[in-house]
Amino acid sequence: MAAYHPFDEKIWDEPFETYRALRDETPVYYLEDLDCWFISRFEDVWALQADQSNFISTRGITTTHLLTHQTPQAPNLTYYSGKEHNEVRSYFNSYFLPRHLKTLEPRIRGWAADALDRVIDSGQADAVHDLGGRLSVRVASAILGIPEEDVDQVMHWVNGFFHREPGVRGTTDVGKQNQKELGLYLFNLARTARERGAPEGTVLHQLLSEDLLGERQDDKAIAIHLNMMVIGGTETFPKIFSAALYRLWQNREARDRCIADTSLLPHAFHETLRYDMPTHMLGRTIGNDFEFQGQTLRAGSGIMFLWGSANRDERVFEAPDTWNLDRHAPRILSFGIGQHMCLGSHVAKLEGRILLEETLRRIPDYEVDETGIERLQSEFFRGFWKLPLRF
After folding, report:
1. In three state form, how does the secondary structure of the chain look?
2. Considering the domain boundaries, does residue 192 fall inside one?
3. Whose CB among 146, 160, 242, 264 lies 3.0–4.6 Å from 141's, allowing a Cys bridge?
4. pLDDT of 190-241, one tens digit each?
């Protein structure tokens, strides 16, 4: 029988054989020491994530919430379920939809060009921090209302929050300190903006001027909402963008095709989202006893959706462990589905298209220095920390 534990550090870098064994042998897998179920097949994850009746989010959705219980869940978008979630999501939604993002597109392209301008003469760059991170934090900050002069420090705190150490489950002391400093910064930002005003057309401005769930938000509540969105908007994109560059470098024919026809780049980004999904699991708490695939899932237990496994499920994807520009998969789980689908999915797709276009236009001959690659390792996220480019 398949053996799996999310804190088994031996599988963190390459978990896919373990995921395959789970899918084949015990796709609904229970760990008593964590009181949590792990769902590994695509169709099962798809069905359960669409279920709005049997789960609650008030205890959190990450491994630090559900597996190590280190971080108490705060009332941000991920906290709510049902009608309340719909109302909160509707409150923020307009800032993350294509119609609004279209007005930001010239600025996004300018930031992408600026990131490349900064490295072009040196002939080298780190795809994660110099390109992906530099763009994503500026886009997120513009949407949220964070001053541009603070964005590099904000990125530093976000990166620090995800610091991990061998043998330490969940968030480290370094991570907790960075989270504390980011939260304090956002609290002070809200307090200052309340006195001096916030940029119009930003999330911060709306939180200061319009009620949410029938209440005006205080500075602490505003900081909590912004914290969730700034982390979500900056943490995953650098990993997936750098992975896309890496897969295109590995698949030279596909890269040549994308250089010749940039309309293929969204397909390259989409396939990388499937193949190199940075967030390997998120979950919820079971709210009601229910039967699923012959198992009784009890209220109060956690449930984790193993996106990293589901996106490689051979029951849905032919040759799933091969990156294929021509796959055009109609369904993937990298942004989730249903009520809790990622709020920033359109932002990530736009950033990916623009930054890939600019990168392949400016440095189409880039090479990856594999000797300098560094990867992040964790129980729930996986991706590049450094991806050195030479051109």
Report:
1. CCCCCCCCHHHCCCCHHHHHHHHHHCCEEEECCCCEEEECCHHHHHHHHCCCCCEECCCCCCHHHHCCCCCCCCCCHHHCCHHHHHHHHHHHHHHHCHHHHHHHHHHHHHHHHHHHHHHHCCCEEEHHHHHHHHHHHHHHHHHHCCCHHHHHHHHHHHHHHCCCCCCCCCCCHHHHHHHHHHHHHHHHHHHHHHHHCCCCCCHHHHHHHCCECCECCCHHHHHHHHHHHHHHHHCCHHHHHHHHHHHHHHCHHHHHHHHHCHHHHHHHHHHHHHHCCCECCEEEEECCCEEECCEEECCCCEEEECHHHHCCCCCCCCCCCCCCCCCCCCCCCCCCCHHHCCCCHHHHHHHHHHHHHHHHHHCCCCEECHHHCEEEECCCEEEEEECEEEC
2. yes
3. 146
4. 999 999 999 999 999 999 999 999 999 999 999 999 999 999 999 999 999 9
